[in-house]
Every structure is written in structure tokens, then in C-alpha cells.
Amino acid sequence: MVQVSTKKTLLFIPGLICDAELWRNQINAFKDEYNILVADHSQSDDFETLAQLIINDVPDRFHLIGLSMGGYLAQEIIRRVPERVEKLALMATSSRLDPDTIRKTRIGLVQLASKGRFVGMSRQMLGTFVHESKLDDPSVADVVYAMAKKTGSESFIKQQKAILSRPHLQPFLKDISVKTLIICGDSDPRTPVEYHQEIADGIPHADWHILENCGHLPPLEQPEKVNHLMKQWLTND
């Protein structure tokens, strides 16, 4: 007899140059109660194609969690298949398009990587990802360095191009009706607090939390707090 799992599915989508290790603490915390999936966000350099490929790989119903680039994709996925997403969590992300300065930076990084000059994660760049108190914390810094190295130039280029091709997502926030958790760091230079204010204002009844002494990677920087908030989000209707 084939046994069908009754566990609900948690679909995690990492951010740029991140992989499943970004969610290592959350996976360990919830793997006994939930079916865990981590999306491959390097399958295409076209944003809408990438979102659809992720949708094609997951069960009919799932809880959706995305950080940064993964948050952009999560918003696009729930826009496309709102009936399939049971709950939504967005972390360190945005619903707006990049300003011209950021777009130019992304294009420049793609050009450098295309010429074989992808450097992974430098300490200087790490300072724009995590709070200063985590720069020498191996449970954070070493994981980020390793994820960037594993990502490599080819996937980095695809991810940046996909980000550059994403649509403006703010107009669709009002249509999100599922229980939504929003988490951001108070010291995140990449997606600052005001970006999350826009998302919280746009989604009806969103539950928004700002974590102190936290940068762009809350699941790694503040795992206990993120796990606590996620547990409340998952268990309380």
C-alpha cells in the first residue's frame, strides 16, 4: 500500500547567491512537521519563466516563504496561482522595481561575471548583507561565503538577469488574501524598513515584524526569532 503524506508543504525560495543553507535553521526546526521544499531559482534568466518553473515543481497546495529575490518570486507566484498558496511569508524583500542606480549596478556585475570576474562574496560585500555584529560569526559569515562560492558565475548571471526582468509587483499586493508574515532587519541596506512598510500597507491584514540588530538575512542572523514568528504564522489562523 502506498502511503500518502498528510504533511503540509513549506516551499522556501532563497535570495540572490543563496541556496538551501540560507534556510538551514528553519528546515531543521520544521522538517518533522512539514514537507520541506527549496526552490531552484537559477533555472532561467527570465523572471516570469522562472516563477512558472517553480510553480510546476511543487504540490497543488503549499505555504510559501521567500527572501529578497525569493520574495520577488513569491509575490509573482501568489499573483499567478493564489488558490494554491495557503500562507505567505516575505522576508528582506521589496515589491518595487529597482531604481536606475541599482539596475546599473546589477548590469555591471553581470558584465563582470560574464568576463570571468565573479568573485563570490567579499568581506566588503558581506557588510551589505549582514549586521556588523555577524561579520565574524562563522555560523553566518562562513555560510554566506560558501553559498556564494557554490552559486558560481553562471547561476549568478541568471539570477541577476531574472531580477532585472521582474515586473512591478506593488499593484498586486492588494489582491493577496492569505495570512501573510513580513520580516525585515532594522539594519538592512539592501531592502530597508520602508520597503517592508509598503508591503505591509499593501497587503490586507499583514503581520509585520522588524528584527533589531539584523541585516538582509534574518533566517541566518536571527534564526530563533524567525523560527518563533514562523511557528506562530503556521499554527495560528
Order of helices and strands: EHEHEHEHHHEHEHH
Q: Characterize the main sheet.
A: 6 strands, parallel
How many helical elements? 9
Tell me the CATH superfamily. Alpha/Beta hydrolase fold, catalytic domain
Radius of gyration: 17 Å
CATH topology type: Rossmann fold
Identify the overall geometry.
globular
Rounded average pLDDT: 95
Domains (count) = 1
Which percent band covers the strand fraction?
Answer: 5-15%
Residue stretches low in confidence (pLDDT < 50, at least 5 long) are none
Category by helix and strand content: alpha/beta
Strand neighbour order, sheet with most strands: 2-1-3-4-5-6
The count of β-strands is 6
CATH domain class: Alpha Beta
Calculate the terminal CA-CA distance, rounded to whole Å: 34 Å
User: Which CATH-level-2 architecture?
Assistant: 3-Layer(aba) Sandwich
Helix fraction, binned, reads 40-55%
